[in-house]
Amino acid sequence: MTLPLLEAHDLQLNFGSIRALDHVSMALWPGEVLAIVGESGSGKTTLLKVLSGSESPDHGQVLYRDPELALHDVHAMAAPRLRALHRSDWGFVQQNPRDALRMGVSAGGNVGERLMAQGARHYGSIRSSALDWLREVEIDPQRIDDLPRTFSGGMLQRLQIARTLATHPRLVFMDEPTGGLDVSVQARLLDLIRSLVSRLGLAVILVTHDIAVARLLAGRILVMRRGQVVETGLTDQVLDDPQHPYTQLLVSSVLQA
Amino acid sequence: MMNTAGHPMLKTHGLSKSFTLHLQGGTTMPVLENVELTVNSGECVVLSGPSGAGKSTLMRSLYGNYRVGQGSILIRHRDDWVDLAQADPRRILAVRRDTLGYVSQFLRVVPRVPTIEIVAEALTIRGADHAEAITRARSLLLRLNLPERLHGLPPATFSGGEQQRVNLARGFIGGHPILLLDEPTASLDAINRDAVVGLVAEAKAAGTAILGIVHDTPTRDAIADRLFKLYPAQMAAA
């Protein structure tokens, strides 16, 4: 039996009188995609921040199991070690690619930078790896020396994905990766994420308010409301036969195109 | 695969399912009560019963798409019996990948992906080589009379019948030991219904256990070894 890659136990976090996380527990296994859904203010982005170590809980633990099966308490880790983890085993895809990319550095530089942070030094191999990744995310390799600010929103998001995946993480956190994009651009990105995730065997925690995105990408889903996990399970089961009143409301509120 | 006398592949015991509608004041609707069903390898069982008897609900429950209230759904998965009513999501996904195939009435796919890749994917997720999966997908699509010029296009703009055939190809290509068919011929013309009858016959000969909902009489008569009748739950309870 394989063991979870990431586990959270009884996470609690209050912002003043607001319960951002209220007894949240979860586990993620290697190679699976877990969607966290809920409306704004439900605590889903806060949960992602706590899971990835950028925000500390008032109570509870997040445990990461490395490839040698050693367990690490994410919030007890020294800051340099957590940063090292983010550079090697983990990746993070932000909703707004401008928050992750360096807009004054070329597209190739953005990908190469992460490789260099991981220790790559040979200029030729960094550049060829960057070229491979641009091709992988369907960006014309001739744009390698262009600055990201000349890219469209969809291209920027694909560049961020290339930058994130270039170091071969095994766990990727995604915060609304298709949010704020045109529908046609979103479809292309969904297809790209889906094929990369399955081909590379990535484990993904995906935060989205769009349950259609969750359905297409995630095997399992976790529904949040007011800091609590109200329902969790197989994605199609939760969406097609929701048990909790809030999930029923969420599913029935989706507009049919 | 050898078709021996036929051994159970799917069994339900005391299977019951109701829906609680929280947005309608918590109304509870019983749909299935104490369903006892067995499907053997190499046979095709077709569900019968009036509209509203719960045929689709039963199919969806058997696939793990609906959560059952009581009872068990035993699926012969490799050399084990797995109770789908109790299994965790990752186990259900493994059963679906290797053992339990499903052809639904609706095609739900990532936009923009070419038809042939959608069909081939059902094989590659089981570990098949991509090139071989594409070859098999092409021949299955052609057999279902979907011309090659459509294979490279995403099915979003296809007609209902064409989408249905993409669904069928995706359901049959995997060669799962158990196959659930939810109105597989609903929007097909006679020629394509015949193609489906042929696929079902071959799957049965290969030992596949098949359970279906089939409304058109000629197809049902051609594929069914026996019928399994469902009654509306309230009547069964009375």
UniProtKB/TrEMBL annotation, chain A:
GO terms for cellular component: plasma membrane. It holds the Pfam family oligo_HPY. This is Phosphonate C-P lyase system protein PhnK. Gene3D superfamilies: P-loop containing nucleotide triphosphate hydrolases (3.40.50.300). The keyword Transport applies. One of its GO terms (molecular function) is ATP hydrolysis activity. Keywords: ATP-binding, Lyase, Nucleotide-binding, Transport. It comes from Acidisoma cellulosilyticum. One of its GO terms (biological process) is peptide transport. It comes from the Bacteria. InterPro entries: AAA+_ATPase, ABC_transporter-like_ATP-bd, ABC_transporter-like_CS, Oligopep_ABC_C, P-loop_NTPase, PhnK.
